[in-house]
Protein 1
Amino acid sequence: MAVSPARLAAFNILLRVERESAFAVELLHSAILDELSSIDRGLATELVMGVLRWRSVLDASIAYFSFTPFRKLDLEVLTALRLGVYQKQFLTKVPPHAAVHETVELVKYAKKTSAAGLANAVMRKVKSGVITQSGSSDSVERLSAELAHPQWLVDRWVQSFGFDAARRICEYDQRIPATALRMAEALDEEKLREEGIQLAPGALMRSARVAVTGDITASRLFRSGKIAIQDEGSQLVAALAGKGRRILDCCAAPGGKTSALATRLPEAEIFAADLHPHRAQLLRRLAWQRNVHVVAADALALPFMADFDRVLADVPCSGTGTLARNPEIKWKLKPEDIVDLQQRQTAILRSAIQHVAPGGRLIYSTCSMEPEENEEVVKTCWQSGNKFKIVPVRDELARLQESGELAWQNIDQLVRGDFLRTIPGVQPCDGFFAAILERR
């Protein structure tokens, strides 16, 4: 019996995530799944994201039942076992015998026949049924183990946000996040409803909608680029830019915030830059509005003068605020990576402020939960000169609330010092940080 198409696709994607440091979300939306039925695409997605979310829990079961030391398992064998254990422990609709058989067949498919007996033995020992994870963990070690997050990362969040918030972040990361949409016109909602897509109001942004039922990616509006899938926290960061006539987005790809700016400010002239030409091409497709000009350029050496009244520096970061969507990050990231990222972010911010016109503003943002990438970068650059002042983000949130753009009522929950700070699980969105600097 051959391996089912969904499991084979999931197996190959997980191998690429490990070997190539690829992002699972991108692979799940690539040509790899083109030949699969909608049901198989759904199963492949469930398998890939489930394995990545619960990897450490799965590995603990494998290590316990394997007669071969865990560290000596070949990657192909380990990946097949992770898929099998996830199905047996978390997917109650998959018959246990099917999970066992498919796991053994995957090992054979990978030309690791000598490990077929091991795979069969491990899978037969693993108990069936969904594992229930306690939400009342009372220590960092237990929280890390039960909710499948590296202990060093959980410990950082406890120190930064407190134990309860850290627990809520971990719980949020283990669930499928809502599909939030950025809408251009009120009439678009009716058009989606005609295609069988039901929407609910956004929690943060008044114009945002959350998909309840239906396939957004198959809709005409999505394929035309008129509506976009964009986390509400990301939409909020773009809204903090306020109004401007000449806008620069320094690290723009893939283009969500650029497109949001172009939709909100159709009369503005927007320049969107990205270092890599292939990402600039992607940016051109996603930020399709006529007032967007895409440039392939290094954020450290942009070909512009200091004549922008709004500059957005949405810098490359660890992405620890997006683990619900990108769970592989938590297994790849190391503490030393944050130091390297901080140096790069500081350099980009110092370059970006050179392009702000007098009286203009710069919005620095990340989707990271780590203070080294956020407050510390801003304060380092701000203290290096007195040309800029920090604008309290509370003032801008109040403006957005008064104008009807911000739906979230409790502004205090969105503020940490002078900065924006969304916390997954506290707010129903990814974790974002933003600071506003104004040139005197």
Protein 2
Amino acid sequence: MTETRQKNVSKELEKLGLKVAAEIDKKENPNIEIPIRALSNVIFDKKLGQLTLGDKTAKRYFFNVAHSKKFMQSLLVAAFAKSLRDENIHASIRDMYYNLKRTIGDSNENTFDAQVDSDPIIVDIEVALDVLREQLHLTTDRKGIVAGNVIIQDRGDSIDWSKLGSGGWSIPSTVEEIDFKKVDAKFVLVCEKNAGFERLHEDKFWQKHKCILIGTGGQPSRGTRLLIQRLNSEFNLPVYVFCDADSYGFYIYSVIKSGSISLAHVSDRIATPEAKFIGLTISDIFKYDLKKATIKAREVDIKRAKELLNYEWFAKNPKWQKEINLMIEKGIKAEIEALSHQGLRFMGETYLPDKLKNKDFLD
């Protein structure tokens, strides 16, 4: 993250505090204006190809019985984030909860009763100031791994993603703070399963095909999604998403490409509309003779697939409609590990190279 952007975040936090202080000095009812995060205010921007928040907002007032506690909590979180940035340190959202948790005066009222109370307030500050949680120096557990011919600078350390042995680089939530010093790749391959990542990493797929290999470990974290977007937008690298042939895998691709309802307020910074789906598909099951490696779809899988059919970005694409309907019709699904039915190296030596060569992607 650039120094200018860092200073701007601190300035936005300061402006919030000064605004509230000025309203108190004027004997006005202090308030914080927050964009509404309800489904009714989430729209799909066709031009951008991603989910985003609409323009509906609500004001949170101090002198309002229904608002006063959350108003107090909002200022506590904002002040905590300001102190983190002033000291140039980071804290986990769990640390923040415990740091701010206390009983108010002689009452029986706590600032926060549980972390489920403090986490949504962080998001409120995010949307109110139009910043990322990570820019507030609030972090979450690392999730996601990456390997490739890339050198980054991270808090003063130079890290070479091509020389980290079998483990790869563990993706932090503070991806916006890293600087790229060298990126030598033709594309990014995002693998839903860590097992798939391990298989491809051991075979040095990223080296043979000159790509950056990312394992998300299921639903990708915000840090992983931000990393994918940065590699795409800053280095113009195509992004191919490799997921299971089931409704959950299809949804993971959807989240990477278009964002999610819960994080619609940051889609412009963590979604990658140019991402394409490289498989596994239901059609691939028959094309590559994987029928004996399929799993019977559960009722919940079929229900979720039917919901996906109505997602605007799936509904407008005949190829996606075909694949999702095929899953419903056949009542089957398959994991990417099913490719091992044809041999352990089949995934990296045949399936993915075929897909890349023939540009066999779903958009």
Protein 3
Amino acid sequence: MTPKERVRAAIEHREPDIVPVGEWIIDYEPASLVLGRPTFLRGKTNLIKAMWEGRRDDVVNSLKRDTVELVRRLDLDLVCVDLVWPVGMRYEPPERIDGETWRDKHGNVFRYSEQTEDLMLLELGSGPHEPKLPDRFVDDEFRPDPSELEVIEHVLAELGETHFLFTGMGDAHLPIFSALWIEEMMLQLADDPDGLAEEFFAAYEALVRRLPFFARLGFDGVIVGDDYGFNAGPFMSPDAFRRVFFPALKHICEACHENGMFLICHSCGNLRMLLPQMIEAGIDVYQSIQPLEDIAGLKRDFGGDVCLWGGVSNHDLVVGGPDEIHRQARAAIASCAPGGGFILGSSHSITVRTPLENIVAMLEAAGRHPRPACVEAKHEG
């Protein structure tokens, strides 16, 4: 089977030749270890600074080259690729307040996190921290600037025939993270659930309007990612989920299927309580399965209705050793792979501080043959 055939078989609950493997995200640090050179893939603060400095072409060229090489070196079956910044897009560098803090012209304050190497939005200002892109719809059809497709077209040319390609469909933006939205959403969920439902549906409808464009390009799937909970459980009751979030999720699932694509749902938190509704909405793949959700139990209870993507704790990938990672991968394969409906990967993504030997251990447990640049160089020497 090709990687594309393998993933499609798993999603359709047909047992493939071997277990599919993949990651939604691999941060720049472990990616650099695999590639043997620096990269802007999931570049976090390094990427943000490069864009502030006007180095858009350097970033995009890295994404083109390194996305393809990373997939091949790790022997992955799936790859996510998205729109990039159009040529000519400029960011105005913010004022540096101290060694870890910046403030832009609107008063937005950003602070560097040494632990995750992210730049976090600490305080909201009076305006957006991203330049506004023009409307790209012509005659009700999505038509992005050709330069926004540079990475997509390169990856499609290199991997589109052989690998399972999926996309988030959204515009390129700086990877500046914020948890400030959570409090506002929780208040609106309590005070104005119908208003929140309308906003959520409108956001997904905006993506639905883009679906035909990405289907014509040849994508196999779409990923949507909205966190519905934390380790203790969902942010809301099942009744509130059905009222506020279910209609939008069902809408985009139906639209994906009408356009011949699968819907991958990424959502953090212990969502066992909500998973029946997510399946009813039509998701094809559930990704970001926390260890406490018990993936073997999910396979037992829901494995006939949804493809599970995960199995190895991304926390343990950072702090554990290769033997433990190999054990988790083999256990997940043994409990989840029979009958299809399973893709092996981390419980979220491959993050900074993940040792290369742990990545290799996970992939080798699935019968893969990763070729990190450093190992290849030793063999050549």
